[in-house]
Write a structure and sequence with these properties.
single chain, 126 residues, mainly beta, 9 strands, 48% strand
Length: 126
């Protein structure tokens, strides 16, 4: 059996641009892509913390260290500069791989600068 698990996420990044007339996708600071392990052109899910919208697109590389998170094309209707988003990528694992796998979680400040990484999620409080 193949399981679809969270591979990586960039948690609470700030949208810097929303480009309606760009060809689509989401441009992400190349340093954040490298740290998270999200590849250029990989499918990503974006969850807008401010608006509650969720959509799927693909990642493209913005300049390293630029802090850019640009939501492009039709998705620009679903996020605007200043919105906080969670960007997630998933991967398929067999059950043996899944038993050992831990996602890469990337945390950023309000300028999309790395604060820390983790390979686990905090426990849900009761």
């Amino acid at each position: 059996m193949q399981l679809n698990l969270l591979k990586a996420k960039i948690h609470r990044a700030t949208v810097t641009h929303a480009e309606l007339h760009y060809e689509g996708s989401c441009a992400i600071d190349g340093r954040l892509l490298d740290i998270s392990g999200i590849r250029e052109y990989e499918q990503i899910h974006i969850w807008n913390v401010n608006q509650g919208t969720r959509f799927v697109t693909y990642a493209i590389r913005a300049d390293e260290g630029s802090g850019v998170i640009s939501v492009n094309g039709a998705a620009a209707h679903l996020a605007k500069p200043g919105d906080l988003v969670i960007i997630a990528a998933y991967g398929l694992c067999d059950e043996a791989e899944a038993a050992k796998f831990k996602p890469t979680c990337v945390y950023v400040d309000r300028d999309n600068r790395l604060t820390h990484t983790n390979h686990s999620m905090p426990a849900q409080a009761a």
